[in-house]
Amino acid sequence: MLAPTHSAFGIFLTLVILAFFGVQWGLHWTIILFAVLGSIIPDIDHPRSVIGRIFYPVSVRLERAFGHRTITHSLIGWAIATAIFAVFSVIVIWLLGFVWDLGLGIWPMASRWIAAFSISYFSHLILDMFNRRGAQMLWPDPGRDVIPKDPKYRPPSGSKVEVVIFAVMVFLVVLALPVSKYGVVSSFRWLIATPSSAIEEFKALKTHAYIDFKGYFESTKEPVQGTAEILGIDHEKLVILYNGKVYTLNEEHNADITASKVKIKKTNIPIKIVQRDFVDKTRDELLAQIPDNALISGTIYLPEGMEVTIPNSAGLPAEASAKAGSYKTIEQKGSSLVLNYANRVEIEKVGMTRKYDIQIKKDKADLAGLYAKVRTLNSQIREFGEGSDLTELGRKVLADQDTEKRAARLQELRSQLAETGVKIEELNLKLRSRSMVFSGNVLIRQ
After folding, report:
1. What is the pLDDT along the chain (446 residues), one digit of tens a residue?
2. For 28, which DSSP code?
3. If I label 132, which of 26, 174, 183, 287 is the partner at 20 to 30 A Cα–Cα?
């Protein structure tokens, strides 16, 4: 086989095998370069080959000493060449790191270079076994290894059949590129295109991802298709953002959207998540911290006894209500407001119930009544102590007659005053606990 055919097959085999072990072609262009080098280096024992012309002195000596397709086309030659290239790679990596101060991050490339070189070198030996002369795989054993055994089915180098083989190899390389880019498992998941495969693929991602889907709304059976962003996973269902609404999606019938065909689309845009903790912040202060395009998840602790009105599909037209989805982006649980991918507009629409507003007004009215009672009690205590408008002699006579009654009455008034003061403190604490300030912690997703 000629160099172009060997190069195409070497690249194909390298891409597929590295992808199977999770090494992506897009990591570095040098993987392709050393795959090409490994695929043609066995022919260094032939001075008229591409690599033989480049290393002509070495090629001539090898041909004179061993002949063509002997040691360099054997398992021993494969092992020796791989070892030499491994030493070369380590030296080059060390020099690059020392001269350009590239740091330790470049060292993983050495193993990938060696793997690419070794895989493509071996691919050369395999391909030559399909040639009429075969390959001396077990050198120094003089026997030649061939596939198939009948020579009439093994094409000679440079023949028309090899041109066809080369075209097939190029086609296989084209097919291998997406497999290499996304990995064997990811490519398989993309091919089967199910919600379950998209879920498994999304679990390993830390970047924004989208899906192209086709299905129907579970509540109305109305067809739906389009592109949606994946927000997360909830009980083996995809949580997606589609047309500004949050839905759940899977292939079963327990989600807002049932879809059988789902193809995931990855991006390189990282998901930015910022955590915010806050204490005693007003509604406006909270909203000021939320970017317009952000989605909020977390818990907001509500004032005591507060019940809120949460926007939902109830006020929408019938068609829009059916498409609104059942996923709750905002939900009140006791005195907590739980957010799941809620946007700024939804949070702004959250309001107090009429009952809570009336209760605050009632508490304020009760407080005003208690303050009025305090004023009355203080006035009575003062009047009682002064003996009203009696003369000094009259107060003296009255004091002698009703000393015990007056003392008891004065004590009663003071007790009422103290009790009223306690009620005022309790009511003030209650109103402060119901003041419109909030605490909690949220995650802001962008």
Report:
1. 788 888 888 888 888 888 777 665 445 678 888 899 998 888 888 888 888 888 888 888 888 888 888 888 889 989 999 999 989 888 877 776 644 544 445 566 778 888 889 999 999 888 888 887 777 788 888 877 777 777 777 777 777 888 888 898 888 888 887 777 666 666 666 666 778 888 887 887 888 999 899 988 988 888 999 999 999 888 888 999 998 889 999 887 788 999 888 888 888 888 898 898 888 787 777 888 888 888 999 998 887 777 788 866 434 444 444 455 678 888 888 888 899 998 888 888 887 656 666 766 787 788 788 888 888 888 888 776 655 555 565 555 555 556 667 777 778 888 888 888 888 887 777 666 555 667 889 888 88
2. -
3. 174
Judge if pTM exceeds 0.90. Answer: no
Pairs from 374-379 (Cβ < 8 Å, separation ≥ 24): 374/417, 374/420, 374/421, 374/424, 377/413, 377/416, 377/417, 377/420, 378/417
